[in-house]
Amino acid sequence: MIRVLLAEDQGMMRGALALLLGMEPDIEVVAQVGRGDEIVDAALLSRPDVALLDIELPGRSGLDAAADLRDETPDCRVLILTTFGRPGYLRRAMEAGAVGFLVKDGPVEELAEAVRKALRGETVIDPALAAAALSAGPNPLTARERDALAASVDGATIADIAAGLHLSESTVRNYLSSAIGKTGTRNRMEAVRAARRQGWL
Amino acid sequence: MIRVLLAEDQGMMRGALALLLGMEPDIEVVAQVGRGDEIVDAALLSRPDVALLDIELPGRSGLDAAADLRDETPDCRVLILTTFGRPGYLRRAMEAGAVGFLVKDGPVEELAEAVRKALRGETVIDPALAAAALSAGPNPLTARERDALAASVDGATIADIAAGLHLSESTVRNYLSSAIGKTGTRNRMEAVRAARRQGWL
DNA sequence: CCGGACCCGGGACATTTGTCACGGCCGGGT
DNA sequence: ACCCGGCCGTGACAAATGTCCCGGGTCCGG
Predict the structure, then answer these.
(1) Could you tell me the keywords of this UniProt record (chains A, B) (predicted)?
(2) What percent of chain B has pLDDT over 70?
């Protein structure tokens, strides 16, 4: 029996996947969590063979949790299951020690098979996505440029960002201007969207 | 046997829900579509008793499709199944003739039961959500203010919006200023997010 | 018929945003 | 030792944005 941990915030999706995987004769779902900051605790308790993690989770990113699992439970293979096939996500997933990267499109049949492959030590990645990740190159933004961009979502003004980051307004504007240049966009919001599409945020 | 049509863009979610509903002894999934503009055709072909529609679909909104179904297949009950419990969505769903409104949080067990209730003519709505929809009141934005807001996502400049709507830049700025005022926000992006949260967009 | 709401546009103005040039400070690599 | 890059800040400037006026038009309900 392959012991599986499932981390996914949408209740219906989580329940459906758990039922599905549980129907496979060789797979058993030993833990389900809806928050990113519950993953490590649950894994230590239930000792899964494979962890199936969403990326966008409340509390803690699935990517960060993957890195935690590599340290805390090294014999647990991590599979990332996410809505968005962003190149930067794939890159970060690999750096965090994940053995596979699935997008929520594509057929359900993929899922159980991916779990089995993961246990056998094979890596499971969509080839087209891998190519995109390679061709996109690494994240060109510096840490502070990322911070500034991330803080400028939902219409925060320069003053808000500066306050949140404990910086001068001038500095924030310089970072944003630089990020806009690097993303080849025309303003903050376009830069945010471009960076998000690449998985840089 | 209850004949169900399933409209959902995420392949894995769609497949999982279909399998799940198919396991119920009294339910049969007779059609699955991944795009909003395929709903009506599929419904005319497969004559479902209940249509389970996501809102955010490529091609055509699930809410618009619900209105279509009311005309084309009046004996088919419509259930809306969506990620976001936005008050405005619920209101529009009811106006489009839906008999129920489910959010993708909450347990999977809800789902089959909701389908059965829908067939019996009962309406299925989360009471807390219904209260929120009532207390929020109707959409205060005019049609053009909505257009301007909707066109200003992903960092479009005023000139872009004006060109896309065949309007003068002054007009666009007036609409946006008005929308900002009505949403009680400080700039475009905050207004967009506020309007989206309410389901006004 | 009149008021009110929506649609569309113009002009003027203050504020915000984005750009550029310029400093200084640190740490790592050659 | 030196340079380079990231970090933090300033000042000045052009462009974009948001606000407040104003005008005109239509349509609908009282």
Answers:
(1) DNA-binding, Phosphoprotein
(2) 100
